[in-house]
From TrEMBL:
Keywords: Hydrolase, Membrane, Transmembrane, Transmembrane helix
Protein family according to the UniProt entry: Belongs to the HAD-like hydrolase superfamily. SerB family.
InterPro entries: HAD-like_SerB, HAD-like_sf, HAD_hydro_SerB1, HAD_sf
Designated name of the protein: HAD-IB family hydrolase
One GO MF term: hydrolase activity
Length: 307
């Protein structure tokens, strides 16, 4: 018993010392935590970079900058001005629906759309359609610009960078829109004209898919741009080639395929649609023929080939 009493007396002070040590350690940890700031995620670098003259931004047009397709709106304006009949309007509307619902681009079908559209403007003066294009912008397009996308473009302009539209729509149609928005310029599909009159033929093919990427590369080379410092914006998976060649790709109002691709590759997303409207607009659209019943005006304001 004496031995047990000795053991008990020795153990108690040791236990008290352990408690004291634990409390002191905990207090020191609390003080250390309070004095040392919690680690923060690295700040996102400023973008766009102010004063970077080798950077620029490239924006798709249909459903990226503008709600709907530019050619469809121009087609409405041409129909109003009796450029074609109701039967042709119905045909273009059906072609638009087929492209949007199928989400694919059959070469023969695309050629049919282009031929129909070009036949409408064949023989018309380029200057006439340019003038009409200005009127149609005010009538049907000015109120369809996405404010969010326009703000993105303005941020690049405010940073001293150039901003270009890149679209399968006629280059002159795109140029009208770019000028009205205060942008630098536009890349678009080119149609042939001789003596200022449309011949009804394209120069090459519509600016679509891989062709957009090639156009951006060519412009970057001519303008001394560094594509790794540039940004591109689009709603369509058809524009993945263009988005892939820049250092800052953005999916804006993306269709299902582009949204999935953007998430897989860590691209940034911006969606200015809401609710049911977003779901409707998200149906894959074929931009190759200028999207939309816009086949109606597929060459309405196409860039004339100077000879």
């Amino acid at each position: 018993m004496a031995a047990l009493g000795w053991f008990t007396r020795r153990r108690q002070p040791a236990t008290e010392r352990s408690v004291l040590a634990g409390e002191a350690s905990a207090e020191a940890a609390r003080k250390s935590s309070a004095e040392t700031p919690a680690p923060q995620a690295p700040a996102e670098p400023e973008f766009p970079v102010v004063g970077d003259e080798r950077a620029a931004a490239f924006f798709d047009l249909d459903n990226t900058v503008m709600q709907g397709a530019a050619l469809f709106h121009f087609g409405r304006g041409l129909y109003k001005r009796h450029f074609f009949r109701k039967r042709e309007l119905a045909r273009f509307a059906w072609q638009q629906t087929w492209f949007r619902m199928a989400g694919v681009e059959d070469p023969a079908h695309m050629e049919d759309v282009r031929s129909s559209a070009l036949s409408i403007v064949k023989g018309h003066r380029v200057s006439e359609l340019m003038s009409i294009g200005e009127e149609i912008y005010d009538e049907y397009m000015a109120d369809r610009i996405w404010p969010g996308t326009r703000a993105l473009a303005q941020a690049h302009l405010d940073a001293g960078q150039r901003v270009w539209l890149v679209t399968a729509a006629p280059v002159e149609t795109a140029t009208i829109i770019a000028r009205r928005l205060g942008l630098t310029g536009a890349l678009g599909t080119v149609a042939e004209s001789v003596g200022g009159i449309y011949t009804g033929r394209l120069v090459g093919e519509p600016l679509h898919g891989p062709a957009k990427a090639e156009a951006v590369r060519a412009l970057a080379g001519a303008e001394g741009l560094d594509l790794t410092r540039c940004a591109a914006y689009s709603d369509s998976a058809n524009d993945i080639p263009m988005l892939s060649i820049v250092g800052h790709p953005y999916a804006v109002n993306p269709d299902t395929r582009l949204r999935r691709h953007a998430r897989e590759h860590g691209w940034r997303l911006r969606d200015y649609r809401t609710g049911r409207k977003a779901a409707k607009i998200g149906i894959p659209a074929a931009a190759g023929v200028g999207a939309v019943a816009g086949g109606t005006a597929a060459a309405v304001a196409l860039h004339r080939r100077r000879r």
